[in-house]
Amino acid sequence: MTANGPTLRLSARDREHLGTIATLLRVGPGTVFYERGSAAGWVYNIVSGTVCSYRPLADGSERVAAFLFSEDLFGLARRGSYMNSTRAVTPVTAFKLPLDALSGLLMGNAQLQFRFLCKVTHTLREAQRRALVLTRRDPVERVAVFLAMMEEAQGEKRPEDQTISLPMSNADIGSFLNLTPGSVEAALEALAGRGVIARQRDGAVRVLDRVAFDRVDTD
Fold first, then answer.
1. How many angstroms separate the CA atoms of 48 and 58, rounded?
2. Which fold has domain 136-218?
3. Which strands, in side-by-side order, build the sheet including 23-27?
4. Which of 6, 19, 93, 162 has the greatest number of beta carbons closer than 10 A?
């Protein structure tokens, strides 16, 4: 999952440049963009929606590597092949960019090249942050940090908006945090029982006690 800080956003001019080589896609939940190991020919830039990056395991299960949101890039490859599989969690609108044309565009546009480099660097930082989250033994702490990461990734909000959207399933959250779905559910209930959050019918949570929420995130 990545955050949408100011330095990572593409400008209107950047999007205009990308629009000259991009195809706009609109897909439904569950749509697979590409499979791990397939030849990498495209990079994607999310306009709206949530995407899950995951790695299929030998036993048929999956290991979630990241959740991606508006403004995030995905489809970066190693040795010409995609490193993970990706699918839409919600309805997704995204620009599909041919890798060859994108490379040529970046070579001639230093500012756009810099922003793409920032996004790639940020993706690596988020991978490191996930590794740190997994060192926490308490499932409640892991879920609290995950909620904080989701809040950050969903961008700037009005001060009074304390809602954190959770469009993914408990199974996907558990896969990301190396927890069972039941442990994720129990951790959310524990945070709600402490009065830190309130759970909503649509699956989102609302932060009730900001001080306590931030304390669990940083402990």
1. 32
2. Arc Repressor Mutant, subunit A (1.10.10)
3. 23-27, 92-98, 42-48, 73-74
4. 162
DSSP string, the chain: -----GGGSPPHHHHHHHHTT-EEEEE-TT-EEE-TTSB--EEEEEEES-EEEEEE-TTS-EEEEEEE-TT-EE--EETTEESSEEEESS-EEEEEEEHHHHHHHHHT-HHHHHHHHHHHHHHHHHHHHHHHHTT---HHHHHHHHHHHHHHHT----TT--EE---S-HHHHHHHHT--HHHHHHHHHHHHHTTSEEE-TTS-EEES-HHHHHHHHH-
Q: How many CB atoms lie within 10 A of CB 127?
A: 13
Is the overall model pTM greater than 0.90, yes or no? no
pLDDT one-digit tens code per residue, 67-123: 988 878 888 787 889 999 999 999 999 989 888 777 777 776 766 666 666 666 666
> Phi, psi (5° rounding) for residue 68?
-125, 145
Question: For 155-177, how does the pLDDT look when each residue is reduced to its tens digit (9 = 90+)?
Answer: 666 666 789 999 999 999 999 99
Which residue type is seen at 105?
L
Provide the β-strand partners of residue 92. 27
What is the fold, at CATH topology level, of the domain defined by 6-132?
Jelly Rolls (2.60.120)
Please give the Cα distance from 7 to 1 (Å, whole number). Answer: 16
- Can you give the residue ranges of every domain in the chain? 6-132, 136-218
